[in-house]
Every structure is written in C-alpha cells, then in structure tokens.
Amino acid sequence: MYQQILNLVQRGLDKQVPTIGLGIFRIFFGLVIFQEIIFLYYFRALIFDPTPTIDTASPTIHFVLILWVINTLFFIVGYNTRLAAVINYFFWLIFTIFTPLWRDFDGGFDQLMIGSGLLLIFLPIERSLSLDSLKLKLKFLRLGQHYNPPSTTSVLSYYLPLAISLGLMYLDSDAHKLFAEQWQNGLGSWLPATMPYYISAIDMSWVLNDEILQKIMGYSVIIFEFIFIFTFYFRFFRIPLLIYGCLLHLGIILFLNIYPFGFAMLVHYFLLVPFSWWRKLKEGFQLKAPLLTVLYDEQCPLCNRMVIIIEHFDLLKAISFKGLQTYARKYPEVNHLSDEQLLKDLYALDGQGQLYFGIDTYIQILLKIKYTALLGLILKTPGIYHWGKRIYRKIADQRARIACDDHCAMPLEKDQDEKYSVITLCQHWAGTPQQRANRIAKFIILILVLQLNSTIHYGILYRLNIHPKGELSQLLYQISDGILSLSDVFLGIVPHALYLHDHFQGYNHILGITYRDKKGQEQWLPFINQEGRLIAPNWGRVQSMWANVAVTPQIDKPRLYKFVKKITAFWGTKVGLNLQEAVFIIKAKRIEVPLDHWEKDLRHRNINQPWVDIGKVIWADKVMHIELAPGVNIESLSL
C-alpha cells in the first residue's frame, strides 16, 4: 500500500500546474476566517464572559482577537504568508482549547479550519496574488531584467486539501449517515430544512413539498460523499463534482443558518476548478490592448521598482511600460521633448494620443487599472492634487540613476547570493524529490490511519453498539480514544455525525424568549422570532449553542439555565434593559420531526405552531432566577 501511495505522490510531484487556484483559495479561505473573527468579536461577551456584561472574561481575549484579524489580513493579501498561516493555525488551537468555543459554541466548523489551516502552512499559497511574490520581484530586481518568481506547483498542492479536508470528511460523514434513519429513508436533507431552529428566512417549500425530489436529493448526497475521494482527481468527474458540491454547500448557506460551515466547505471547491478555466478566465479578464503606455527611465532603480509594483497590481494588463532609452523617439507626441525633459518626469500616452506627465501619469494609471479608480479620483481632488504634486516633484528630482553597463546584462542567477535565495532555502529544507515524495506519502498514511481510527471508533463500533470485552480490547479502545483526542485537537479529525437521528429523535419542542419593554408590552428578543427561527446575526456558533447544546430532545436543566442566563444578559443589555430589574418570558411550542416518513408543508406547520408560556426569567440585582409555570418539568417537556 505504501509503495502504491508513494508512486501516486511521485507522479503528482512531477505534474506542474499554475498556482492561481491556490492563490484564490487562500484569499477566500482568509475571508472566511476574517468574518468568523468579526463574529467572535461581536459576540465576545456572549461567548467568553461567564455572565455577559456582569461577570466578564479577561480583556486579553479582545486584544488577541484584534491581533488575529491583523494576521488574517496579512494572510489574505499574502504578506509573510507562511508565517501568517502558522500563526492562524495556533490561534485556532488556542481558542478551541482554552475558550468555550469547542465545548459550547462548536458545530464542526473549527475542526475543518484547523485541518485545512495546518495544510496551508506547507502549501505554496504565496506564489500567486500575493505581496510575497512582489517582494521577491523587488528583492532580485536588476536593471535591464525583471525576476519572475515561480508561479507553478505540483498538482498535489491541490489534491491534498481536496482529499483530506473534503474527501475523508465526506467518507466519514457517509459512514454515520448509513446508520441514520432519516438518511436511510432519503429524508436527510429535508428534515433540517423543516426544523425552525435550522432554517433561514428563505422559504423553499416548493422544493420541500416534492417528496420524490427530496428523496433524490437525500440519496444523491450519500452517493456524492462516498464517491468524491475516489473520483475527484479524474478529469471526467471534476466538473460534475464541482457543480454538485457547489450547489450542495450553497444550499446550506442560503437555506440553513450554519453559513460559516457552508462557506468554509465551499471555498475548497476553488481547488477543484479545472486549470484550463483559470487560464481562460485570465485571458478573458485581461484587455486585448493596453489603455495607457508609460515611458520610464530604464536606468533608474526607483522607476524599475515602480514598474514592477504597478505590473503586479495591474490585473487587467491595462498599462504598457516602455523604456525611454529604447522607445521614446518612436512616439511623435514626445519627439519635441529633449532628453533632459524626458528623464525628468514620467510620461504616459492614452489611446487618444493624450500626453500626461508627472503626478497626472500616476492618476491615469490608477484610473485605467479600474479597481483603483477611486484612489485616482481622490488624487485629482483640489488640495490633495497640489499636495501630491509637490511630493512627486521632490521625489522625482532626488531620485538616483545608474549608468547601464555590463551590470545590466548580467544573468540574474550569477548576480545573487545563492546562500540567501528563497528558492534555494526552500529546496534545502524540502529535501530531494525522493525525500519529499517519501515525506508526503508517510503523511498521507498517517492521516489515513488517524481518520480510519475515528471512523471505526465512532462510525462503526459506536453505531453498532459494540463495546470492548476483555483486557486487550479495552486497552486498544482506550488507546484509540487517546489518539482521537490528539487528532481531534491538532488535525481536526473528528466524527462528522451532524444532525442525525440521535440528534432529532424526540426533538419535538423548541423554546423562545420574550421580554417586557418599558411600556409593559411583550417583545421578542432579537434572538428567536415568533416563527421559532434564530434570526441574524445569531447563526453559526450561536445557533449551534442554542439548538445543539441548550435545547435538545432531553433538556439538561443546569445547561439550559446557563445559556438562558447568557442570552438574556447579552441581548437584554443590547435592547436597553436594566438587569437590576428585568423580566423575560420563556415560551415553548411543539414541532414535528418525523424520521421515517415525509410530510407535505411541514415547514409551514412547524413555524405556525402556537407558543405557550412555561416560565419567567427574573433578573434582580444582576442575579438571574427562573420561575417555571406550575406543572412544567423542563427536563421532560411535554406540550
């Protein structure tokens, strides 16, 4: 088996592909991280404070979240990308291990981000659409020639995240689905979309009310998840898998309220886009002819750096740069200028033959690049324009020039100290091609063993209710459990048993919370609305906390009271209530969650069920007390 995997790895390393897909994946993966940190910062009191606004957590958490945001921005723009990836990975570990995220505010999202985040540390994600590649171009700049850093990578850089983050997760999830009653009946994708706690405001009843379509969708998810890891690297299957996977996770984003997980899964599909599509997209995106021709001094180091920087950000290829010494006299618009005048300023010609120089050249460059047009318009503003003109004149008059001699024609490789070459250092630490292949093959074997341990432990033995008998079996079970704890924390390898029969069975009630305003009128907290839906922004982690931990088929009273305290303190303060004397009303309503049969219009019936008052939440002197209605047993709620 090892030799087979090694052979596949060696073939993958030999096949070189563009890195544009990795660059786009890095950007959107970073955006998913960014929005999640913003979410954590907004809900920092609810998540991290033992009692929001009353018993507060350490303010260090707020500071660390800000540092995390800054690091994520570096990761998105590709500045010190590898270091940013390492720091991001440790931030996920810190927050999931040492804060309530994993225990109370989880939902499977953190494990995916940890696993993929670890892989990104070792992938060449900085080779496209990054400031790191610009740094290399500037670092190894020589007059008369420009350095182009590597823009290709082995196809394994795409295949490994797809196989590990998606393929193994799908396969493990499928193992659990096969034991779930609603998935066996083809209702796995239908049931959560009828449950008020899980639905979004988009009403898709016209789809939910088609029984045959729902069962086709349910069974197709099982088939898709099973075949993905075995087929995604075949060209014939790539586009069908890409389309189905994108539709699947777009559906999660739009119609359920666990959008962070949906987005995190969806961005991985940038790695499945055929490489020819990226080339065609690039060709179609770029202009056929430049909109502006800029004449620059080839013997000016500052001018050469300017050219490299602008070309790096000119995604449309709207700017064409020509050396003054070579091309200036070929343009009649500048023939009347002396050599001294030409070297004094930066000149540009647009398609209409209009000549620009000085600060106006930079304004035209910003306008023609399109996405920087706003900066160009700001620079044209009176006052800013004259201030910028003075700065430009000062820099232009003080810039240094170098006479172009044999130095300009010297090959770049001979002119740089290989000891400090980034490429040479990377190759040194990566080892020979054979060493790299062996390391990757061993890593894949390790991941397979750890994932197999999780799937067998929870997906088969637990589902079949098989318990270890005998000392050896118990020892092996304990070792397996210990390995699971480590792989869970550091690699994100966990059982993907989300929203199965053991979660929905007996889940025939939901709770909501209202409050009395200053006029004594009953109002719904901006948390759960009258339909029973969790409204924005209480999605993702907060939804998971309430629907998976606080309110369950068998409600744990202390756990529910803990989160009722958090919700009422957090949102009560947000709506302006004084926790010295605030009263909230706990409401409940009955819902239906059939596992073995389909029912028409169940979504509407569940959201239209009437509410019943079952108790009060009373805050006095910043202390919460719950009074249940007579005859109500919250742990065995029956409506």
TrEMBL record:
* Pfam families the record matches: DCC1-like (PF04134)
The listed locations are:
Endomembrane system
Protein's membrane topology: Multi-pass membrane protein
Q: Which GO terms describe its molecular function?
A: protein-disulfide reductase activity
Q: Does the keyword Repeat apply?
A: no
Q: Where is the signal peptide?
A: none
**Coiled coil regions in record:** none
Keyword Secreted on this protein?
no
Q: Name one GO cellular component term.
A: endomembrane system
- Origin superkingdom: Bacteria
Q: Which residues form the HTTM-like domain?
A: 14-277
The protein's name in its UniProt record: Thiol-disulfide oxidoreductase DCC
**What species is given as this protein's source?**
Candidatus Nitrosoglobus terrae
